[in-house]
Amino acid sequence: MVEVKPLTGNEKDVLHDSLRRHRDAVRWKVEGVDDEALRRPMTPSGTNLIGLVKHLASVESLWFCDAFGRPGETLPFDEADPDADMRAAPGERTEDILAYYARTCAAADRTIAELDLDQLGRSWRGVEVNLRWVLVHMVEETARHAGHLDILRELADGATGSRRPS
User: Fold this and answer.
1) pLDDT for 37-73, tens place per residue?
2) Distance between CA atoms of 7 and 14, rounded to whole angstroms?
3) Which of these, 12, 21, 5, 10, lies nearest to 143 by C-alpha position?
4) Which of 90, 95, 88, 93 has its CA nearest to residue 49?
5) Concatenated DSSP letters for 102-118?
6) How many beta carbons lie within 10 A of that of residue 16, not counting itself?
7) Which of 76, 80, 90, 119 sits at a 20 to 30 Å CA gap from 16?
8) What gap in Å lies between CA 16 and CA 11, rounded to an integer?
9) CA–CA separation, 11 vs 17, rounded Å?
10) Mapped to the 3 state alphabet, what secondary structure does 37-61 carry?
């Protein structure tokens, strides 16, 4: 569980705390779910629980590491399958995807801790971004997919809730 810090922090701390809370919700939504349910496509597009975690891991690395020239583990882009980061590949173990998410979040946290909000980076499309924008974007991205995970988890086993039980 993520410790909730006071709501009076500076801009960087508030943004980082928000990202950490949404990451915790992502991890919580896949806890205790069997492997078959984690991988089961739950929408016509094939969205599944573990695929969303893999996607979030990939974009954490892309935005916080690649964009700022820092060490990371971004998945290679596959033009033949541009949505490959949205699902577990055959033979890819759930525990490896969860460990990948943990590593990319840790790498992102190092970037956030070491850089100023105004530090400039460059997206894979060549667009200049600053750390502030990336933090806001990743709070949005993670919250959006945490909401998807809420729905998929309820469909998988009926579990509901917006936060971990106390």
Assistant:
1) 999 999 999 999 999 999 999 999 999 999 999 988 8
2) 7
3) 21
4) 88
5) HHHHHHHHHHHHHS-TT
6) 20
7) 76
8) 9
9) 10
10) HHHCCCCCCCCCHHHHHHHHHHHHH
Residues 6 or more apart whose CB falls under 8 angstroms from that of 58 comprise 74, 75, 85, 104
101 exposed, middle or buried (CB, 10 Å; 0-12, 13-18, 19+)? buried
The segments of the chain whose pLDDT lies below 70 read 1-6, 76-77, 79, 166
Q: What tokens does 1 get?
A: 């569980």
Q: Are 60 and 23 in contact (CB under 8 A)?
A: no
The β-bridge partners of 72 are none
